[in-house]
Every structure is written in C-alpha cells, then in structure tokens.
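Before surveying the methods themselves, let us examine one representative protein, pairing a chain with its fold in token form.
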Amino acid sequence: MVAGLIAGFARLMSGAVATWHVQPHSDRVRIYFANHSSHADFATIWAALPADVRARTRPVAAADYWQRSRLRRYLAAEVFRAVLIDRAGGGPAATEQMAAALRAGHSLIIFPEGTRGDGRVIAPFRSGLYHLAVAVPEAELIPVRLVNLNRVLPKGEAIPVPVIARLTFGAPIGLEEGESKESLLARAHAAVVALDERAKADRDMS
C-alpha cells in the first residue's frame, strides 16, 4: 500500500506521462538506464512502471545519501528495495552486487553518468553499464530519457516542485558478440539522446 501511494505521489509531482517504445509488461530481467539530473529521477521511472513490473524492479542508489536519516533508510529498504552502492568502493564489488540482484530475478534502474547533470547535456556513460551487461548478458538494456526532472527536485533542494516532465522508454539494446566497452557505451548514450529527439519529432507532427 505504501509503495502504491508513493508511486502515485511521484506521478503527481512530476506530471510525467510515460511514452513506451517497448512493451511495458515483460517477464524478462531488465536494466533501465537513464540520464540523471535529480533525486526524483529513479522514483519517476519506478512509479511509471506497471505495478507487477515495479514490484520486482529495484533502483540502484548511493548508500551515503539514502542512509542519512531514518526516513530515507525506511524508504530505501522497505518501499523502493533499493540496491545501495558504496560510492567510495565501487568497481567490481558494486558490479557483483547489482549482478546478484539481476540473477535473483530483479530488474534494475541505473544512471550510467554516475552523477547528476544539469538536465540539458547528457555526460558520457561510465563503464558500469558495460560490466553489468557482460556479467548478466540475458538482461535487456532499456534506454530511458527524462526531461525536466531537474526542475521537479533541483540539486540541493529537498521539497519537490510540481512541473510537467517527460519520460520515454526506448526499445531494448543488447551487448553484441565481441563488442567493446567503448562501442556499447556509445550506443547506449546515443539511444538515450535519440529518445528526446524522437519525442520532439512526434510533437512537431501532432
């Protein structure tokens, strides 16, 4: 019940109506990877998922942020069931922690930029997405584009502001046989960028 209420609140605050270029319902394990500009990002993606998919999808988040208060610890553990990563450690240990969740049947929400941006430019993706794709090759890689989320919960602010945001889920990509890290990360980055360009084209035609 709490998860449902929070999902509804997240949809209300962002005003984001999801556009899907992939089947929303799937039994496949998925890695939803998106651009990152706000602490509201993962809640917005999580809330947009169908209830049955949301129930087995876990956001990946920084342990130091989500363990700062009793409320954050409760939300991370009991509502979002987040995979909390130690940013000071990172590397292979973080990859294995995420891979273990995927192998257990959970999908993940990740942000390959590694830090929040300004909402306009998407920074190059770090290597974690590639290493995760190698570790769990059966996982579908789903690009997600968020627009205006940096205005819903700006960096340094704690209170969300109702703003109309956009949220687009793209078609899956996968790691090709023998593909290099640089190639996959470039394709993944381009897939996220292209979703905003596609959304703009759709609006111009409507």
Summary: The chain has a mean pLDDT of 84. The longest helix spans residues 181-205.
